[in-house]
Write a structure and sequence with these properties.
α14 packs antiparallel against α15. With 460 residues, the protein is mainly α. Helices cover 77% and strands 0% of the residues. The protein has one domain: MFS general substrate transporter like domains (Growth Hormone, Chain: A, Up-down Bundle), CATH 1.20.1250. It is built from 21 helices and no strands. The C terminus is likely disordered.
Length: 460
């Protein structure tokens, strides 16, 4: 598995200008939407160890279930939502998704017990369904494949930056205990991170454009170059194994593709690791206080939570830059999976807060180094509505890990007297499986390519 590298110096002035405008005008705004999206879905991780867990009398298993049930609602509507985006247009659909989840996110301010918490998390998943794969598909419709790694890397920077900026922000919001209508700090935090989704969602309705032809900020030549380049790529892909059809035929293409299902399993391993960290790293840090006899304030906890994600953002940028230069290779995905598989269990035996955070930092770097490159793979062989269905299916199946990770981790922790070791070993094992599957998929594609080449040669 590889994408073609390119020499940017050989690109025309029109191409450079078009890509620059898309990168500056469009990508940061979609990344902002993703920033708010990820912050709202993981805000529960900041709230639980800082008042919510005690106020709602949550066990680790209950917290894990409430964290993970979000993904059940998300999964149920993921495919229909992404197909609706393809039909109605990204601008309207992404804006609608954002306003809807913002309303639900604000309602967490007044949650009273575990049952309400679980139902609200389920509703949040329903509201957010389709946003992430829709954003990936939306960006892929704006740039040719050879620029896609760069664009997706810029977009994906929002995820680690959510923890770099969002964790201290959440900590600061939670220090305002009783300041706003007597709300506890963790309740005020939910209000503070939920309201921006409604505001930005309304702005998105007017700011986004569905295609280059609809963008008033591109000149005629730039619109023509982008439209022509993407159309040529789609025409090429329609001659490949996974051809685009219409409606149910497109869904059948995705469901019957072995590559789509393998990519779903690979993504499962990465997302399992990602959400184990997102939902339980604040709890692990809170545990340092008793384990190592130290004391942290709310803002300090937020800053410590952010530490692994600063180098993760840097590594994401550097690896994606390298992948853009040489083309996406198997190693850009398989090697991070392997290093993540080793580093997360090592964190359990580090022996100090500093070494524990250092090992977790390696895991975070590994996950974020792989994900932008991973998402270039489906669009190498899927196009049109089949791409919408395939990307949604990969994200849907992968996000089963979003439910499994917090629920299983919490359950294993309770079953082992509060010990995280068995749960973190499971994270390492799943990331190792992702590594093996990525290598196997690459070899299978290479064999298929060689067989096609031999067949063509024999025909001549």
């Amino acid at each position: 598995m590889t994408t073609t590298s390119f020499d940017e110096s050989h690109e025309s002035d029109v191409a450079k200008s078009a890509i620059k405008k898309v990168t500056i005008r469009l990508v940061p705004f979609v990344a902002l939407m993703f920033f708010i999206n990820y912050l709202d879905r993981t805000a529960i991780g900041f709230a639980e160890p800082n008042g919510m867990g005690d106020d709602l009398a949550l066990t680790a298993a209950q917290y894990g279930f409430a964290s993970g049930v979000f993904f059940i609602g998300y999964i149920l509507l993921e495919l229909p939502s992404n197909m609706a985006l393809h039909r109605f247009g990204a601008r309207r659909w992404l804006a609608r998704i954002m306003v809807t989840w913002g309303i639900v996110a604000v309602l967490f301010t007044w949650v009273q017990d575990f049952t309400q918490l679980a139902w609200l998390r389920f509703a949040l998943g329903v509201a957010e369904a389709g946003f992430f794969p829709g954003a990936i598909l939306f960006l892929s419709l704006w740039v040719p494949a050879r620029y896609r790694v760069r664009v997706l890397a810029t977009f994906y920077l929002a995820q680690p930056l959510t923890s770099v900026i969002g964790a201290p922000l959440a900590g600061w919001l939670m220090t305002h205990d009783g300041v706003f209508f007597g709300l506890e700090g963790w309740r005020f935090m939910f209000l503070g991170v939920g309201a921006p989704a409604i505001i930005v969602g309304v702005i998105a309705w007017f700011y986004l454009a569905d295609s280059p032809n609809d963008a008033k900020w591109l000149n005629t030549a730039e619109k023509a170059w982008l439209t022509d380049a993407i159309a040529k790529e789609n025409a090429t892909k329609e001659g490949s194994e996974e051809k685009s059809g219409h409606g149910l035929a497109d869904l059948k293409v995705a469901l019957s593709s072995g590559r789509v299902w393998t990519l779903s399993a690979i993504y499962f391993g990465f997302i399992y690791g990602l959400y184990t960290l997102a939902f339980f790293l604040p709890t692990v840090i809170s545990g340092f206080q008793e384990q190592y006899d130290v004391e942290f304030g709310l803002v300090e906890k937020g800053l410590i939570t952010a530490i692994p994600y600063v180098p993760a953002a840097i590594v994401l940028f550097l690896v994606s830059k390298h992948a853009t230069k040489v083309g996406v290779k198997t190693g850009h995905i398989a090697i991070p999976a392997f290093t993540g598989a080793i580093s997360i269990p090592l964190a359990l035996y580090a022996g100090s807060p500093q070494l524990t955070i250092a090992c977790i930092t390696v895991t975070a770097c590994s996950i974020f180094a792989a994900l932008p490159n991973f998402w270039t793979v489906p669009t190498q062989f899927l196009t049109g509505a089949a791409a919408a269905a395939g990307i949604a299916l990969i994200n849907t199946m992968g996000n089963l890990a979003g439910f499994a990770a917090p629920f299983v981790t919490g359950w294993i922790k309770d079953a082992n007297g509060g010990d995280f070791k068995p749960a973190f070993f499971l994270v390492g094992a799943l990331m190792l499986v992702s590594c093996v599957l990525m290598v196997a998929l690459s070899r299978r594609q290479q064999v298929s390519a060689d067989e096609r080449s031999t067949t063509v040669s024999a025909g001549h």
